[in-house]
Amino acid sequence: MDHENSELWVFGYGSLMWRPGFDYVERVPARLIGLHRSLCVYSHVHRGTPERPGLVLGLDRGGACRGIAYRVAAEKRGATIAYLREREQVTSVYLEVFRRVTLERPGGLAVRAVTYVVDRGHTQYAGRLSLDQQLHIVRQGHGQSGANPDYVKNTVQSIEDQGFRDAGLHWLAARL
Fold it and tell me: What is the homologous superfamily of the domain 8-166 according to CATH?
C-alpha cells in the first residue's frame, strides 16, 4: 500500500481536522484538487442511527478542498492506517484512496496522502441535498460520536481557524 514502510500523509477535511485521533509529526494546511467537501453521507453510526440518520462529510467529485495534511512517522504508519479504517470504514461508505495534495506552505510541496472519498454507489450516499434538507437531517442526528450539530459547528470552527470559509457549512452552522 503506497510504500508500506515509509512515512504516511493523511488528508483530513472533516472531523479529522479537529480530532485526528492518531500521532503525527507534522500538521499542515493543504489543498486537494478534483474533489470537494460535501455533506453527502448519511451517518448511521457516528452522528446518527439507521432509523434517524445524521449527515457527515465526504469528498465528492469536482472542485477542490482545503483541509489538513498530517505527516505520520514510518513506524506509526500501520497503526494509523488500522485506526483510520476502524474509524472511517464502519459501514464501508468511503473508498480509501491516495490523492495528491499540495501543502500550503512556502514551496507548496505536493505529497500523496491517504484520504476517504465517498462511494457514490453505497446506500448511505445522500447525493446533493438542498441546504434546508441538510439542516433538517443535521438537527435531528445523534450517534455514537455525539450530536450532528456539534460535528458541523466543530468543522466550521476548524475551517475558520485556517482562515477560510465554506459557504454551505457556514450557512448551516449559523442556523444550528
Answer: Gamma-glutamyl cyclotransferase-like (3.10.490.10)
Pairing of strands 142-143, 146-147: antiparallel
Instruction: Provide the residue ranges of all domains of the chain, joining segments of one domain with +.
Output: 8-166
- DSSP summary character for residue 121: T
Residue ranges in the chain assigned as alpha helix (H): 15-18, 77-88, 131-140, 148-161, 167-175
The model's pLDDT over 123-152, given as tens digits with 9 standing for 90+, comes to 999 999 999 999 999 999 999 999 999 999
d(CA 81, CA 47): 22
Phi, psi values for residue 36, rounded to 5°: -130, 155
CB atoms within 10 A of CB 163: 9
pLDDT in tens, 29-62: 999 999 999 999 999 999 999 999 999 999 999 9
Cα–Cα distance for residue pair 78/25, rounded to 1 Å: 15
What's 3's DSSP letter? Answer: S
C-alpha cell at 20: 485526528
DSSP 60-72: EEEEEEEEEEEEE
